[in-house]
């Protein structure tokens, strides 16, 4: 890696100086960005994160060469809002994408409240990461799931492979024949994850001489759970893990791992690894119908840790130290300012960024970020099992805050509060809202102040079609 780039990044990360203080003519070549964004991959779905069933040797190797964040979060418990926050750098109340599609998902007669209306397209007024990087000479490609509109090239990307408004694979799913924007294959036998990997390697080769941002956003491991037959057979013969045992899901994860290995090998072949920032991340927790998020409580669609805590691996040669871990909480809106800092990109004028750059943590993983808390706002309904209060929803409208080791969830239908100390109770089994009233009120006050700051709407209109639950708890 070029010495000038290392010195620049060290200066920015240590807080001694800033990119704007360095004359433009003295700025070095900018690091490439390779961002693996996996769909529905759970926090515990990797070997390096403790899985005893899924096999991820390439991702585990990347983790051993990198900084691993143990307390990384998505901004929402499902796909579209998490992606909108990542791309815009803003929390959900600012862009209005709160959920996927209809905020009334579930049986109408069980909803006490009318949820807040939901947007499904990230409006053009929001300046995406790709648009910001373009102003600094980056060529950007979105490959795979977009889910924020019809075409990512309208929002800063130069290349779109297979991205539309779809939230899951279209047509026949993961197996060809399939038809996606700029990715068509009428011959049976091709696998979508492999096809995206080939396109990613081609893009890297074609752009090796200039800084690039490759957003490789796999549809995997989202439903439908479809895998290669040979890999499925491999896991069907394997002894199940203590908590994880889905052979097809394991095979899908291995295909993602193969993709990571192939793309990283391409960087090595082209001698680009030393000049490339590599990020591996997921958009929400593992889907409860496919995997176990143990020891975390809950799954995709919930504000418990299983729905929002994500694997995050970051490698930047010369800055991150191999085999290190960081327990400082980071969240999806933090990527935008972090990438700006690491690439020397000017922040867009008059544009709100809600996150904090975690660039200082890359070289100092024991450091702390200068903020009070991180937040979630999900004023919608999602059908499915998992409601801790006995209802037919994965979640009813709710909000949450994490401040230090403490996390509080507020349920808007009832006003119920749940308080957990994650350092002592990672599985969120001991509600301390009654035993620690002072801490409860501290977090409530902080969350209310944040809601006022970002204009977070709280559902308060009764649903006229709601049928009250009988006293015996049965519907």
Write structural notes for this entry.
This protein is 26% helix and 17% strand. It is α/β, with parallel strands linked by helices. The chain has two domains: 3-363, Alkaline Phosphatase, subunit A (3-Layer(aba) Sandwich); 374-454, Arylsulfatase, C-terminal domain (2-Layer Sandwich).
Task: Offer a concise description of the structure.
The chain is α/β, with parallel strands linked by helices. The chain is built from 12 helices and 17 strands.
Question: Would you tell me the structural class of the helices and strands?
Answer: alpha/beta
Oligomer: single chain
The appropriate CATH architecture of the largest domain is 3-Layer(aba) Sandwich
Q: Kindly report the name of the CATH homologous superfamily of the largest domain.
A: Alkaline Phosphatase, subunit A
Distance between the termini: 63 Å
Number of DSSP-assigned strands: 17
Secondary-structure map:
Elements: H1 3-14, E1 32-38, H2 57-64, E2 67-73, H3 79-88, H4 92-95, H5 129-134, E3 139-144, E4 159-161, E5 178-180, E6 183-185, H6 192-206, E7 212-217, H7 229-236, H8 247-269, E8 276-282, H9 305-308, E9 309-315, E10 324-326, E11 330-331, H10 335-343, H11 359-363, E12 374-378, E13 382-383, E14 393-395, E15 398-403, E16 406-411, E17 417-421, H12 437-454
Helix pairs in contact: 6-8, 7-8
